[in-house]
Each structure stands twice: as C-alpha cells, then as structure tokens.
Design a protein that fits this description.
single chain, about 325 residues, alpha/beta, Spore Coat Polysaccharide Biosynthesis Protein SpsA, Chain A, 2 domains
Length: about 325
C-alpha cells in the first residue's frame, strides 16, 4: 500500500512546467499524483503521475451527485473550496492508500519521505494546513470530517452554495476553514510549515513561513542564496562566514510567479531556480570558491507584473459590479 495519493483537478492548459513538476514527483515512489483534466496534450510522465481526462462539467456532475443540495461551481477556480472534500468525492480512486491529499501544480517536490515520516503518518489525522499541500488520513470517518458542525453551523454547506471564494481549504484570514473543524473535532493536526514558500509581493525570493502559534506568515530577511533541485531533493545554499550552508525543504511553491523553463533540464538530474525561471546549473561542483560566480538572479519584473495584475483584476470586479 502506497502512502498517499494527491488528487488534483485542473482545467485548461496545464502549467508550462508541468512536466518538470511531474519529474520531481517521480522521485517519490511511495506517492501517486492523479490529475483530472481536460488538457489532451501528450506529456512524458513518470509512472506515479497519472492523467484522467475529464471535462469540468463532468466533474461538476460527480460532485453534485455527492450532495443533496444545489452546489455552486461555475468556474474551476472555485474548486479550491472543495479540496477538503476530495477524499469523499473521489473515494473510489483512493481505496489503496493510507492517506490522500491535494497539492498545487505551481510547485516542485523535494524528498517527501524525509519530511513526512512514518511516525507522522501514524499519529496525525491531517498533515499541514496550507492549501498548496495537505494530507488527510484515508478513513471513512476522516474523509467526512468536513461535514461536521462548527459553532452551530455546517460550514461546508455555506461554502459549497456560494460563488465567493471562501478559502475553506486552508488556515488563512479567519477560523471558518477545514483546519478549525478538524481541531474542534479533537483530530490530531500537524501544523508546522515545512515548505519553501516565497512571498508573492517581492521580486526576489523572500521565504515566508506560516507560524502556527500566531496564525501569521513571517518573512525572513533576504538571503543571497542559490536554489537547487538535485536528484529528488531541494536545497537552499548560502554563505555563512567562510562556509556554505545547505538547507533542505519538502517542496517549493511559486505562487503567482511567471516561471519560464529551459526545457532540456527535464532530462537532467540537477537544475537551479531563480525568481522567474528554472534553468541549468553552471556546475554540479558547488564550493566556496565558485559560489559567487554562479548566477542567482536574472532580469525579472515579477513585482511590476503582480501590481499590474492586481489593478486589472480590481478593475474587472468593479466593472462586473457596475454592470449589475
């Protein structure tokens, strides 16, 4: 029995670095990834990443069949609120797994077995609390915890019957989310943030980490670091005094970053990533002598692109509201 199956519905063209994402998944043999999509492109994928062709309307009918009230699901983006229910919705796909989970496609995987230990899998009902990766113990009861009452309400019914994005899948902003429900049901939840997650408001890679003690994201000071994926592991490498320091992470998350890719690196067992690109590493022999010569940034307009995107979205919302 494998440890976990990640369930990922995604409609429209898959990300330009999807094959690179899949390559990094391929090094985690104890895990599978099921992609439900209408993208008919022929991708080269490892055995543990499987495509299930399915239209958005077909999935909507499947989800509707699971509930005795009319759901609201007009656009694929709304699926983020349904993530905590995937173990219930896709239960016929996951019978042979200890856990099921969901993760975002704007990520690359590191060594999952190093961070998600057997002890964690035995002890916890839910592992992590940020929407870009969460794992749930695969039991009949656990897969229905999202239906539990919280503060006198069935939150999932409110969430599934509104067009608004409620961020039901993760701990963010308020308490009306799946993590709070699990805690209120005395379920065991692992809440430490082991990801390499970058603040979307900065062009440079500024690591931001969720603090479960105060439910806030905390930014680190900028480090002039080299970010490398090598043979299934993700490293941040930087100078500390006269030595190189290596930090390893579970996965890296590139939320709202327009990441380019040198396609040939998909066949390599090592590559680096800078704030807007996955690219070849100048040398595999990284040492204190050549560290400063290795490029860690290239020309990037991420912050400008983000602010422009926010303004366009704000204008669109204003225009839609005005039309009503």
């Amino acid at each position: 029995m494998k440890k976990c199956c990640f369930l990922i519905p995604y409609f429209g063209k898959l990300p330009n670095y999807f094959e690179l994402f899949a390559k990094t998944c391929g090094y985690n043999k104890d895990y599978d990834w099921f992609i439900f999509t209408d993208d008919k492109t022929k991708y080269t994928l490892p055995d543990n990443v499987k495509i299930f062709l399915m239209g958005f309307e077909e999935l909507k009918k499947i989800i509707q069949s699971k509930f005795d009230f009319n759901i609201s699901l007009d656009k694929p983006y709304k699926l983020c609120d349904y993530k905590p229910a995937y173990g219930y919705i896709f239960e016929n796909y996951i019978s042979n797994y200890k856990f099921w989970g969901h993760c975002d496609l704007d990520t690359i995987m590191g060594d999952l077995n190093k961070f998600i230990t057997e002890d964690m899998l035995e002890k916890y009902d839910k592992i992590f609390c940020l929407g870009h990766m969460i794992l749930y113990k695969n039991t009949y009861e656990n897969n229905r915890v999202f239906m539990s009452k919280y503060d006198g309400r069935f939150l999932y019914k409110d969430v599934f019957q509104t067009d608004d994005i409620c961020v039901f899948d993760e701990t963010y902003g308020d308490k009306e989310n799946i993590n709070t429900i699990f805690l209120s049901q005395n379920k065991k939840v692992y809440m430490q943030d082991l990801s390499l997650n970058f603040n979307i408001g900065h062009t440079k890679f500024i690591k931001t980490t969720f603090n479960p003690n105060n439910y806030k994201f905390e930014d680190e000071k900028y480090k002039k670091a080299l970010y490398v994926w090598k043979e299934g592991k993700i490293f941040r490498i930087y100078k500390e005094n006269t030595k190189l320091k290596y930090e390893e992470f579970l996965y890296a998350h590139f939320q709202q970053r327009n990441m380019k890719i040198d396609k040939f690196i998909i066949d390599k067992n090592i590559f680096k990533f800078v704030p807007n690109k996955f690219m070849a590493l100048e040398t595999e022999d990284i040492n204190i002598s050549n560290f400063d010569k290795i490029k860690k940034r290239i020309l990037c307009f991420h912050t400008i692109e983000m602010h422009l995107k926010w303004k366009i979205n704000k204008f669109r919302k204003w225009r839609e509201k005005w039309k009503k």
